[in-house]
């Protein structure tokens, strides 16, 4: 593979990965405007975010088997088409109920892009390149939290929140064209792959029961849930508690995202010297310590705007180190079932993340305590899963060898 093709693939795969986060981040600054326009509250508007998370979680389980049966591109074409239609539906939404429904459908479409991108990384690149490629995808993905909230804030003030969803539809259409003309079909259709419920459940179970998979997918998903807690609670914390305007919130959101993006790129250098397992352990322990300080500080009102911002920045740095390594380690043992494994990794992340998002949205406390408490709980559970799960991996020579292959 030439260098030009290598980076072209990464650019398109990263753009696919970014569709979901763009759909989340771009409309966050518009929460107050949406609430006013649809005659509801910001807490109810947050339900449209939760419905999006639920849709992504459920949809990924659908696309995994479809991509192992029909190849990667045909289900991806369907998902992107559905996303564009639902985005237009969000533009025309005149009630919070309609917005919540359209966001759910939009998520069902967008998760095809997420499943395809992870599976195609496994198809197109060597296992040894896994952590590096995932880190590069996060670099492309980083355009979302850097650009989307800021653009969303300006668009909301200048043209209204509805226009955000037209922009999302246009972005998806451009990515659609790039998929058609740049990405190859990385996995040929398999007519012998059964879509009957029994064989599908058997495929999911064969992946799920692998110790390396369940340890790192759950560990990564729980750590990633801290990011969901931050995303769901940040409009309330920054715009209502700290009285920031729409544009200022967009800039702070972008600034904080530098921690996530920067640490994911530092990871590309760290994997040359350390094993992915070592990076995950260290970053997760640091995340737990930061979460303890953040919770105590927000509970006692010690932090204020700057202290809260620093704590969130530190947490995002840790997630940026954890995510590419846990994804690569969870996917490493699988060849033929890469689509199923990819969908399970994504579905696990989104299921836990959507649960955290809904739970955070239910709290009416006008402080950072709900956010910090869920970050502490999720990171603590992630550390427990890692410590316990590794005991099972050590008893499985095959899994142990795959871990080595994934990081060397």
From TrEMBL:
Membrane-topology descriptor: Multi-pass membrane protein
Key words of the record: Cell membrane, Membrane, Transmembrane, Transmembrane helix, Transport
PROSITE patterns per record: MFS
Keyword tRNA processing listed: no
Residue span, Major facilitator superfamily (MFS) profile domain: 9-396
Record bears the keyword Cell membrane: yes
Species per Swiss-Prot/TrEMBL record: Mucilaginibacter pedocola
Places the protein is found: Cell membrane
Protein name as it appears in the record: Bcr/CflA family drug resistance efflux transporter
Molecular-function GO term, any one: xenobiotic transmembrane transporter activity
Annotated family: Belongs to the major facilitator superfamily. Bcr/CmlA family.
SUPFAM superfamilies xref list: MFS general substrate transporter (SSF103473)
Residue stretches spanning the membrane: 7-24, 44-63, 75-94, 133-155, 161-183, 213-233, 248-267, 279-297, 303-323, 344-363, 369-388
InterPro entries registered for this protein in UniProt: Efflux_drug-R_Bcr/CmlA (IPR004812), MFS (IPR011701), MFS_dom (IPR020846), MFS_trans_sf (IPR036259)
Cellular compartments per GO CC: plasma membrane
GO biological process: xenobiotic detoxification by transmembrane export across the plasma membrane
Domain of life: Bacteria
């Amino acid at each position: 593979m030439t260098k030009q093709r290598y980076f072209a693939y990464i650019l398109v795969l990263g753009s696919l990965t970014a569709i979901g986060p763009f759909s989340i981040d771009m409309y966050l600054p518009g929460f107050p405007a949406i609430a006013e326009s649809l005659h509801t509250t910001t807490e109810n508007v947050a339900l449209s975010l939760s419905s999006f998370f639920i849709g992504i979680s459920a949809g990924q389980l659908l696309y995994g088997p479809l991509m192992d049966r029909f190849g990667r591109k045909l289900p991806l074409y369907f998902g992107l088409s559905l996303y564009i239609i639902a985005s237009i539906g969000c533009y025309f939404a005149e009630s919070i109920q309609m917005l919540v429904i359209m966001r759910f459908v939009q998520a069902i479409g967008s998760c095809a892009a997420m499943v395809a991108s992870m599976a195609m990384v496994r198809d197109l690149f060597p296992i040894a390149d896994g952590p590096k490629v995932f880190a590069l995808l996060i670099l492309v993905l980083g355009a979302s939290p850097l650009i989307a909230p800021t653009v969303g804030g300006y668009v909301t003030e200048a043209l209204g929140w509805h226009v955000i969803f037209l922009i999302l539809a246009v972005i998806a259409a451009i990515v659609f064209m790039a998929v058609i003309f740049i990405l190859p079909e990385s996995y040929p259709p398999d007519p012998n792959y059964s879509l009957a419920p029994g064989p599908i459940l058997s495929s999911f179970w064969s992946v799920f029961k692998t110790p390396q998979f369940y340890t790192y997918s759950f560990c990564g998903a729980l750590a990633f849930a801290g990011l969901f807690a931050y995303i769901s609670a940040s409009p309330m914390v920054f715009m209502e508690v700290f009285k920031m305007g729409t544009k200022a919130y967009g800039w702070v959101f972008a600034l904080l995202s530098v921690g996530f993006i920067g640490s994911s790129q530092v990871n590309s250098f760290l994997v040359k010297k350390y094993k992915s397992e070592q990076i995950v352990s260290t970053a997760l322990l640091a995340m737990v310590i930061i979460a303890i300080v953040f919770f105590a500080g927000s509970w006692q009102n010690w932090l204020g705007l700057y202290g809260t911002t620093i704590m969130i920045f530190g947490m995002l740095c840790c997630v940026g180190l954890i995510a590419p390594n846990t994804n690569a380690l969870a996917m490493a043992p699988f060849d033929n079932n890469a689509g199923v494994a990819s969908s399970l990794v994504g579905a696990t992340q989104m299921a836990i993340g959507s649960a955290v998002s809904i739970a955070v949205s239910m709290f009416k406390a006008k402080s950072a305590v709900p956010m910090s408490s869920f970050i502490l709980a999720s990171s603590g559970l992630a550390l427990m899963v890692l410590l316990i799960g590794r005991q099972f991996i050590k008893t499985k020579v095959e899994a142990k060898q795959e871990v080595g292959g994934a990081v060397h």
